[in-house]
Design goal:
CATH superfamily of the largest domain: Alpha/Beta hydrolase fold, catalytic domain
Helix content: 25-40%
Number of domains: 2
CATH architecture of the largest domain: 3-Layer(aba) Sandwich
Low-confidence stretches: 23-27, 63-97, 100-136
CATH class of the largest domain: Alpha Beta
Order of helices and strands: EHEHEHEEEEHEHEHEHEHEHEHHEE
Number of helices: 11
Shape: globular
Mean pLDDT: 78
Amino acid sequence: MARYSVVVYTQTPDSLLIEAEFVVERGAVYPHVLTSCSTREEAEALAERLREAGAHVEVTREADELKRRPDSGPVFLDLEEAHEANGGGAGPGRDDDGGAPPAESMIESSGAHTPRAAPPVYAPPVGATRTDTSSGFSAPVSPDAVAVEVFYGTTRNRTFRRKPERRYGHWRATRVDLGRCVVTLPTDRRLGELPRPHWWKFEFREDPAKHVMLRLVERLAEDAFFGAVNGRIGDHKEALVFVHGYNTSFADAARRTAQLAYDLHFPGAPLFFSWPSRGKLTAYPADEATIEATTPHLRRFLEDVSARSGAERIHLIGHSMGNRALTEVLERLGGERGDRLFQEVILAAPDIDAEVFRNLAAAMSAAAHRVTLYASSRDKALAASEKFHLYPRAGDSGEEIVVVPGVDTVDAAAMDTDFLDHAYFAENRSVVSDMFNLVRNGLPPNRRPGLHAVKRDELTYWRFTA
């Protein structure tokens, strides 16, 4: 079946592109393939909207030959042709979950399959500052939702997919992509909630008034990225970097970062690093292999954020398996450098061998002003990991709870969250409030409400009161 490309010959107002959920990368060469449609009618409908905004747009079959204009570079009308022209080679095939294998491309697009009449997405200009003081950048999209801008680094492959949810896949890439996202959150949402559509609620489509939605993904060149982050940091001089865990997609990580930044009322720049988790419960071994390969990329990303973002206080939050790469980076930086690059480091439910964690603790704590470990004996995901590995995990707060010098251990077993009790760090109101006092106010555990001290040998750890 033939497909049809919408080719833009002139720059188009960002507001219209964003409303249609498409993005033209900064510095794109025009003519530029905006998107691909399955029918000519669908392509013409989008083209007409762009023409009304004053853009010079054409619709062409993807089977046509490569076109050139006297005043511009080539336009690739076929995805595979663009893939080959940019050095894409053989690799794992395209699939439903991960998209295409790693490849550089001249085609950048994201958005819905068809333009729709949903409320327009408010996408702030890069580095925009907020007009209120509640949390990070947030701006009203409608009476029912707010938009939050977050920045990312990722070693996932680009997929050529149009929807923001599928912009990146789960294959490893050879480079770190940088960019920004816009996530909308419902205003009628309790602290810690990350609502998504569920079939048992007869919810088959996302609704910005009910669900946390990834609305925009924009890849940025390195200088533009750090310029934007620097602009967002402004006078606050703070950045917050989230490193996700196992069974997490790029979109999941973006939504979680936005939720954390908003619920923590974080005033600086929120960022996340997304490694190529397969995003499947059954892919645990594959994720273990990938997180080992992630360490050097994560280190470079964190060092670049430290050196180029303009932030004077950088906070890190790692979750689950993501803590394996994060703790290795901290251990190496702590051993090699004499300065403490990071302010608050939060290791939530770390899926790390408990003995390995104890061995890393001394050097790791030298890289930060404070390291906090959240653990829970109710964490079913870590219980499964312990059964798989036959050894206790650092995120378990049972009899083998990890209490070491240089790390503040907090037992969160009294807190109840999701079915697996693995996302309590971001979803339980008491834990989010504790993180607020830690990140925003810099309070030690003995000054944070809701915690009481527990003696273990000659050391002290902390426990939430039920």
